[in-house]
Amino acid sequence: MPALVLLGAQWGDEGKGKATDLLGGSVDYVVRYQGGNNAGHTVVVGDQKYALHLLPSGILSPGCTPVIGNGVVVDPAVLLSELSGLNERGVDTSKLLISGNAHLITSYHTTIDKVTERFLGKRKIGTTGRGIGPTYADKINRVGIRVQDLYDESILTQKVEAALDFKNQVLAKLYNRRAIEPQRIVEELLGYAEQIKPFVADTTLILNNAIDEGKVVLFEGGQGTLLDVDHGTYPFVTSSNPTAGGACTGAGVGPTKINRVIGILKAYTTRVGAGPFPTELFDEDGEKLRVIGGERGVTTGRDRRCGWFDAVIARYATRVNGLTDFFLTKLDVLTGWEQIPVCVAYEIDGKRVEELPYSQTDFHHAKPVYEMLPGWSEDISKAKSFAELPKNAQAYVKALEEMSGAPISAIGVGPGRDETIEINSFLS
Ligand code: GDP
Ligand code: IMO
Ligand code: MG
């Protein structure tokens, strides 16, 4: 089983960090392939809790090599502070590899992210303000700065000047902000160069060789399927491809090398930031999910919007990612409801719709069609096998599996590493 992708099947925060960490002990490489420090992946090991933003969750497994692929956007200040934070807690980070082709988030990208949001006013996306969109925009516009540019001062200076030429006009004339002095940015970036240098590598070569040698490589997505810039709820999305194809472009590995694609799926739904969300709850059930589920953003501290499970979305995730398995998380959070509504289809303009509509207008008008499933009251957090779950919890899982289009191979019953029920091994 040389290569697997693990990604978010909903709007992010499904529990990818926990799932990656769980497999980290048995894999050789864990690779982030897109996004940046907009992600917040929580890993709980014993009584220790880690919040990872830019670094792959495999960094907490001593035998595993963590890799930041070419598709990731790297804020060098965040990178160094995350590394030193882990070092202070006794985590060895020396094996980290960073692609020389990854793009850098500079201070002007975070500035532009924030002023653009302010300018959008009511129409804002609700970004994390980490400079993600402007950095990917520069990459596509071919005015980005890459990690490798840190090691050629003359090229770096030319590129920063070229990038700021246009941006300074926009900042000064449109946003009424002070222009940014290119030399200040160059010096800021050069200040990080030496500390980052030992990690910089040709990661596509290393990863392809590793797969060819039969090593196990796990690609860890940030965000989720519905936040994908192509397949998500555009424009309320992030600026990268968290879907499975993103692992190929964001790491330089061909699709023929990938054997398994695991969708991380919360037993209910959450979303942070603006955008449509058919099963969103505005009542006490929503509040209960938020409190019991601890649904507060790891990166921005914002409350997450909460709603019931949406099988239309899960089916869509199966389709656009070619999912082979699901890892269902946070089943324990649903303990205590007498009945649990599950969205099985939408009603759009009086018609029942079974698949996610491609039209933004239709999706904005989608009303959930619910089926009620019986709940359970027993504590399930100590369950170690599917058979140990109460009958109604088993039936809930089986119903979700049937509606979602791929087998549920693991179930999370708590945040800890060992609070997982394994049904089918991901590594066989
Ligand atoms: P990620 O961004 O997908 O890695 O997810 P986050 O870390 O942002 O949010 C998931 C939250 O749920 C974290 O606080 C995890 O510790 C927690 N978590 C993950 N799996 C489970 C589970 O099965 N049960 C419970 N109760 N919490 C979980
Ligand atoms: P993890 O990896 C949930 C959301 C933001 C906003 C939109 C665009 O922890 O699941 P951006 O800063 O990326 O330009 O913001 O995407 N968003 C996330 N929501 N989990 C995440 O990451 C997210 N990363 C970005 O809230 O709506
Ligand atoms: Mg998160």
UniProtKB/TrEMBL annotation:
IMP binds at residues 13-16, 38-41, 128, 142, 223, 238, 302. It comes from the Bacteria. The keyword Nucleotide-binding applies. The active site is at residues 13, 41, 139. Its cofactor is Mg(2+). It is an enzyme of class 6 (ligase). Homodimer. Belongs to the adenylosuccinate synthetase family. Plays an important role in the de novo pathway of purine nucleotide biosynthesis. Catalyzes the first committed step in the biosynthesis of AMP from IMP. This is Adenylosuccinate synthetase. It comes from Streptomyces orinoci. The gene is purA.
